[in-house]
């Protein structure tokens, strides 16, 4: 492992990185939030179905 080379490549990547605009950030946050909500709803629906199936969740 070549430490000076690795550090210089990390610095190069950080110099290329930029902060997102407010529109880009809000769009990514909405998409991520929608994904979290959908996964939660799916888990809840599976829980509800398993409660009606005999021998499901006790």
From TrEMBL:
Its main location: membrane. SUPFAM superfamilies: Preprotein translocase SecE subunit (SSF103456). Keywords: Cell membrane, Membrane, Protein transport, Translocation, Transmembrane, Transmembrane helix, Transport. One of its GO terms (biological process) is protein targeting. The chain crosses the membrane at residues 31-53. GO terms for cellular component: endomembrane system; plasma membrane. It is a single-pass membrane protein. It is found in: Cell membrane; Endomembrane system. GO terms for molecular function: protein transmembrane transporter activity. The keyword Protein transport applies. Belongs to the SecE/SEC61-gamma family. Component of the Sec protein translocase complex. Heterotrimer consisting of SecY (alpha), SecG (beta) and SecE (gamma) subunits. The heterotrimers can form oligomers, although 1 heterotrimer is thought to be able to translocate proteins. Interacts with the ribosome. May interact with SecDF, and other proteins may be involved. Essential subunit of the Sec protein translocation channel SecYEG. Clamps together the 2 halves of SecY. May contact the channel plug during translocation. This is Protein translocase subunit SecE. The gene is secE.
